[in-house]
Amino acid sequence: MEFNGGANNAYTREDVTVYTNWFPSSATEVIFDLEGDRISSLSIDPKMVESERGVVISERSTGLENSPWNLLFQTAQGVAFLEHPYHWPVIGYEDDMKNWKQTDLERYFKTYYAPNNCVTVISGNVKFDEVKKLAEKYIEPIPSQPAPPPVNIVEPLQTGERRVVVQKDVATPYLAIGWHVPEAKHEDYYALSILSDLLSAGRSSRLYSALVDKQQLATQVFASFGESFDPYLFTIAGVASKNVNELDLEKAIYAELEKIKKDGVNETELQKIKNIKLMDFYSQVETINGKSNNIGTYEVFFGDYRKMFDAPAAYNKVTAEDIRKVVNKYFTKANRTVGILKSNTEE
Questions:
Q1: Backbone Cα Rg of the chain
Q2: What is the average pLDDT across 35-60?
Q3: What is the pLDDT, as a whole number, of residue 63?
Q4: Residue 347 scores a pLDDT above 60
Q5: Given the DSSP bridges, would you call strands 162-167 and 218-224 parallel, antiparallel or unpaired?
Q6: 118-155 pLDDT, tens per residue?
Q7: Which of 10, 166, 248, 325 is surrounded by the fewest CB atoms within 10 Å?
Q8: Cα–Cα distance between 188 and 215 in angstroms, integer?
Q9: Domains and CATH numbers, the chain
């Protein structure tokens, strides 16, 4: 790939593994040949397995050791989800890593890396007929496999606040609060997406303005919400300022949410976030990488890549009342899990 001017990267999250290749259009057939070979005839060499086993174990331990966020989010998510597979960290557990067998990896690859279980998006200086011909030559001959077993487990309704405290040597406490919210296909997705930016996109956002600038309770604060196959979490997280108790920061976050529940948001504020969302969307689809990511996201998470073209209108349709409704609907005490990470020298 590199010899032909290409490069690649990959990532795995709760729902998907994504491989991305960047290459000159002149190398398109080479890339199809390489990817066809990877899917059909991947060589899982025993020596490579042991080498990568060590790499992943090190990656897990280093991530938990060096990143307070990794430790806090992994712990809090495991408490928020008791039955659904979202309970398990994406990277896995060290005991699993040490005991994976060659046959485990081969079976997993055969099941999930089959051509009938993937979506491929190609953007750039290529022609449809050319791409179709290459797909028929290099991908079509690869046998399909039985569909992966469906995930039938539905996380039960949470009926009370859950709290977990993790101890680690940190200068000031870390806080993460997660509320169960619906999957990407749900009608509330766009309202929740706008709410995420309204709370934490930029220095003028509600949480940053109130908790960092005005009250100086936090050195950083942010909201996190994204696409998922099944109901997942909307998270608000922050780092307490020096000499600030994490419970005071927690109360201040709830106070900002209560303001929205009671008074809603004003139209100027809402329009600003809509403008940000639309600018982000159009900026993404200006690049071939952004085009591929957006098309893939809508095909995989929303069920049809064509829904990407409806996204600008869907954001514009969200009203201030829609925002107030989702905050009242999901951001309740009984529906939240609170994770706190603080130094073990603290009471």
A1: 23
A2: 92
A3: 87
A4: no
A5: unpaired
A6: 999 999 999 999 999 999 999 999 999 999 999 999 99
A7: 10
A8: 31
A9: 7-138 (3.30.830.10), 162-342 (3.30.830.10)
Taken as a whole, the chain contains a residue count of 347
How many Cβ atoms from other residues are within 10 Å of residue 304's Cβ? 9
Contacts made by residues 221-226, CB under 8 angstroms, sequence distance 24+:
221/253, 223/195, 223/196, 223/197, 223/199, 224/196, 225/181, 225/192, 225/193, 225/195, 225/196
- Say yes or no to pLDDT of 345 above 90: no
Grade residue 346 by pLDDT with cuts at 50, 70 and 90: low
Torsion of CA 306, 309, 311, 317, to 10 degrees: -110
Tokens of 115: 């051509």
Round to whole Å and give the CA distance between 316 and 283: 17
Residues 6+ apart with CB under 8 A from 114: 39, 142, 143, 144, 145
- One-character DSSP codes across 59-107: HHHHHHHH-HHHHHHHHHHHHH-SSSGGGS-TT--HHHHHH--HHHHHH
CA-to-CA separations, 153 to 96, 177, 205, 257, in angstroms, rounded: 21, 23, 37, 31
Residue 33 pLDDT > 60: yes
